[in-house]
Amino acid sequence: MSEQNILNVSEDASLGKVEIAPVVIEVIAGIATTEIKGVYSTRGNFATDVAERFGLKSHGKGIKVELTETGVAIDVFVVLDYGVTIPVVAQKVQENIRMALKTMTALDIQEINVHVVGVQMEKEELQDEQD
Q1: What is the pLDDT of residues 19-69, one digit of tens each?
Q2: Which residues, other chains included, contact 104 with Cβ-Cβ below 8 Å and sequence gap of 6+?
Q3: Around 37, how many Cα atoms within 13 Å sit in the side-chain half-sphere?
């Protein structure tokens, strides 16, 4: 998704440098998002949807990472389950992404924006209504 430069995270250059590609941040954020109860899925673009139909799993779909001068900004596009409290689930997504990235990469994230792009109705309820 991101076509930006690699993020340099090494503080001590005596052993070499450590760099993290934005796609790694996307994957970590994607997995952290799907761990939250109430998140049905993340919304990718057309290419990721086609790739998933052929069996390729894309953990970074629905995640956009921007490396700016002030820090790392993440946009998350999610579909939530019907009946959940949207602000509560969105806050849990933000907290889980921040914690996962802090633990795994030691990065401080400037902002995590959650975009709710849909609500998934339960299939069983829809079938009951049709009967």
Answers
A1: 888 889 999 999 999 999 999 988 865 444 544 555 555 556 789 999 888
A2: 28
A3: 2
